[in-house]
Design brief:
The protein is an all-alpha fold. The chain has a domain of 90 residues. Helices cover 69% and strands 0% of the residues. It is globular.
């Protein structure tokens, strides 16, 4: 399903593990260089700065070409504009497949730009060719496109877009079911976030998903964030007041407001505790970041201090929490320390790279001489010439 050469992707994974092993001084520079030479990657993937430049250049070129065609062949009709957008979307996707096949582009900036532009032009075309599609229909369209590009190109952001679009489908579909569904909406989104997080955690290390591991990690982070946002008091109150017409006045609380306040204040702390307990850097860092959300939410409804002081207090709390965790993990507790990244594969990295290195530096011994000549040698001739 994925568009790239599987051998090159596998070699890329080996090279990444070699770099990680080199970073942790498990192998030498010479061994890492030998691994890269033995497992070459036939893909064009420049550094981040060139990638950003190529992304912007590709966007400008395609948009300029689209604008030129608009000036030449269109007369202001939405239908014609929609058809041109559809053709541009399909043409961009076709060019993307061609460039990946012929030029071996892989996260080069060019392919990233073409993925996003293809989706953007397709959504634009649908909105122009069909009369006012609903948010639910548009969410379904975006989910289908993002899921396809995720499976086809393994784009990390496409994984996040597909997850957000799926939540939008659930949200826009459930609110049509009446007031009961609206009331249960936060809990429904919580349940979906927990389920997605559990599924990603369970299967992201599966060898069949090795090309999508970075995508799974990004979705895992998003699931943790949406789990918190779905129960955050500020998000629930303001969204309900805006979309569900609760018409709450200043100082009025939402139904079961006490639950959402507890959720807002405790969930980041639960993340931090579980991150330390399970030696999971992702959930730990997410919890540390969400400490700021606690401060913001409390400050928004309870004007304890000016915003500058509140932000300073929030930053100080985050620093103290981070310092406390660092001191707790010095020395390491149960194999988990602040000094090293939490990589589930790190434990077996040495063994994996040792095997690779062994294969890389393996030399084939010369074949033994199977022909034994009895002749005029001082030993082989057995003294035939008198020189024994």
């Amino acid at each position: 399903m994925i568009a790239y050469n599987h051998t090159s992707l596998d070699n890329l994974l080996i090279n990444e593990k070699a770099e990680a092993a080199l970073h942790h001084t498990l192998i030498s520079k010479e061994e890492a260089a030998a691994i890269k030479q033995t497992y070459p990657v036939n893909l064009y993937s420049p550094n981040i700065f060139i990638r950003i430049g190529l992304f912007l250049l590709t966007v400008v070129i395609i948009l300029l070409g689209f604008g030129l065609f608009c000036l030449l062949i269109l007369n202001g009709r939405e239908t014609a504009f929609g058809v041109l957008a559809l053709v541009t979307s399909l043409g961009t996707y076709g060019a993307l497949e061609f460039l990946i096949s012929e030029k071996k582009l892989y996260r080069s900036g060019i392919d990233d730009a073409m993925i996003w532009l293809s989706i953007a032009f397709m959504v634009t075309a649908v909105n122009l060719l069909f009369s006012s599609p609903s948010f639910l229909a548009q969410s379904v369209l975006v989910f289908i496109l993002a899921a396809y590009f995720l499976l086809r190109f393994g784009n990390i952001l496409m994984g996040g877009l597909a997850f957000i679009a799926f939540l939008s489908i659930v949200f826009n579909g459930a609110i049509k079911l009446g007031d009961s569904a609206k009331t249960a909406m936060p809990f429904l989104l919580m349940a979906i976030s927990i389920s997605v997080y559990w599924l990603v955690r369970k299967y992201k290390n599966d060898n069949r998903l090795r090309y999508y591991k970075a995508c799974c990690t990004f979705v895992e982070i998003l699931a943790l964030l949406t789990l918190y946002i779905a129960g955050n008091y500020f998000a629930v109150r303001e969204v309900s007041n805006l979309l569900f017409e609760l018409n709450l006045k200043e100082g009025e609380s939402i139904p079961a407001g006490w639950f959402f306040w507890i959720w807002t204040a405790l969930l980041p702390l639960v993340y931090i505790f579980r991150g330390i307990q399970k030696r999971d850097g992702i959930i730990l860092r997410t919890g540390l970041i969400l400490v700021a959300a606690i401060v913001f939410t409390v400050r928004y409804y309870h004007h304890i201090a000016p915003i500058e002081i509140a932000m300073s207090i929030g930053g100080l709390i985050m620093i103290l929490v981070a310092y406390g965790i660092t001191k707790y993990l010095t020395p390491s507790k149960h194999g988990f320390t602040h000094a090293e990244p939490n990589d589930p594969q790190l434990a077996g990295l040495l063994q994996v790279e040792s095997l690779v290195v062994a294969q890389t530096f393996q030399t084939t011994p010369a074949a033994p001489d199977k022909h034994f000549d009895f002749g005029e040698g001082s030993t082989g001739g057995g003294g035939a010439t008198g020189s024994y």
